Amino acid sequence: MSSAPFVSPLDILPNHIRGIVERATPIPSIAQSAQALSKDHPELVRADIGQISGFDSSLEVLYGPPVGLPALRDVIAESWNLSHRLDEKHGLKTANVAVCTGAAEGLSLLLKCFAQDKKVGLPRGHWENYLNGVALANGEVFVLDYFDEEGALDIAGLKKSIVAEGIEVIVANFPCNPTGAVLNEAEAKALAAMVQDLNIICIADEVYDRLRYDGHAPLSLLPFAPQHVVAVSSASKEYLLPGARVGFVLAMQPAITDQILRKVIRASSASPNVLGQRRLLELLGPDLEDLRAGREPGLLSRVRAELGQRKESLLAVLDRLEFTSIGRPGHVPQGTIFLMAGLPPWWSGDDVSLAKSALDACCVSTVPGSAFGLPGSIRFSYGGMTVERIEQLEKNLESFRASHS
């Protein structure tokens, strides 16, 4: 590995993906031409359309473009630029955005494109579905420690592990599911500089980048290493739309979003959910107006305030019940809708048995930390818990502890 300039993403695709990208696809190109012509030539008869239309327009929801509705791509790009304080010259444009079927599809397709048969570094404490994405790409997983024992970002340790193992792709996830760990700007810049120096690809899972509770603005790795980082985000959490299945990939290299993913998404799911995209457009509109006016987005602010209150309430309850917050040593979790708690001293079993016993007792449903590469801990999600439900959780855990002490 070296600090040589990053090659074009088209040059590093596996052969079967490159074949998909380079293969002529007459159906979408004919449809695009016909749609443009029909605006000025109403006499043109459309016999290329592979869907039922002209029957009842009040019912019809037609296919959208493989990389998303242009209006939504425009709004995502502008919102992202304003949220991350990027000017027009250095920010995203429409071609730098590809809408996909949830962030999960975006992550899976990026791994297939750039991690095929490669060694992939995942953070210790990671979303368990990363393992499936790497497996689908026939890659090999290596677990990386992003932080040292004191909780500092360990760039030297990361470099050493990446070089020693020959890792070519890493996944960075901040704010982190499951730990809630966040980076500050200096740390993000240091991590991005390392990626550039090692000339590797970083897939930045930034689904929760606007759900942080430390008072700092959203932070992305993308602007700090634009030739080496591809970011993935989503409307699922901050806009309360997980069922709409609207995610998006952001890349400073439009070849990734407007060329590669255009073909690969079409081969995978044809196009993202049009109804979900329309709903997101409705929600993004007012927030974009707030951003243009230099204000905090209204809906997002309300969601973040509620989640921050839930987080603080849950941390207080877990502390009283002798659970300790873990993830980034010495740091309170400050992002996402999750936190990890170490097993309390009154529990004699492992994390799997605690999660099972607590569920069987109708106390609480949690996920054992071993599912995320953090055995000996439990993941709590406060995404579905109101403050009132957290109060109920405290009563339940007190009874559960009494029965196991």
Task: Walk me through the structure.
- The termini are far apart.
- 42% of the residues are buried.
- The mean pLDDT is 94.
- The strands form two sheets. Strands 1-7-6-5-4-2-3 form a seven-stranded mixed sheet, sandwiched between helices. The chain has a four-stranded antiparallel sheet with strand order 8-9-11-10.
- Helix 1 packs across helix 8 (254-268), helix 3 (70-83) packs parallel to helix 9 (274-292) and helix 10 packs parallel to helix 12 (387-404).
- The chain is globular and about 80 Å long.
- The chain has 405 residues and is α/β, with parallel strands linked by helices.
- Helix content is 41%, strand content 12%.
- It has helices at 15-22, 26-40, 70-83, 102-114, 129-136, 155-165, 185-198, 254-268, 274-292, 298-320, 351-360, 387-404; strands at 97-100, 119-123, 140-144, 169-173, 201-205, 229-234, 247-250, 324-326, 338-342, 367-368, 377-381.
Residues in helix, %:
40-55%
The biggest beta sheet reads:
7 strands, mixed
Shape: globular
Which range does the strand content fall in? 5-15%
Radius of gyration: 23 Å
In short:
With 405 residues, this protein is of the alpha/beta class. The protein has helices at residues 15-22, 26-40, 70-83, 102-114, 129-136, 155-165, 185-198, 254-268, 274-292, 298-320, 351-360, 387-404; strands at residues 97-100, 119-123, 140-144, 169-173, 201-205, 229-234, 247-250, 324-326, 338-342, 367-368, 377-381.
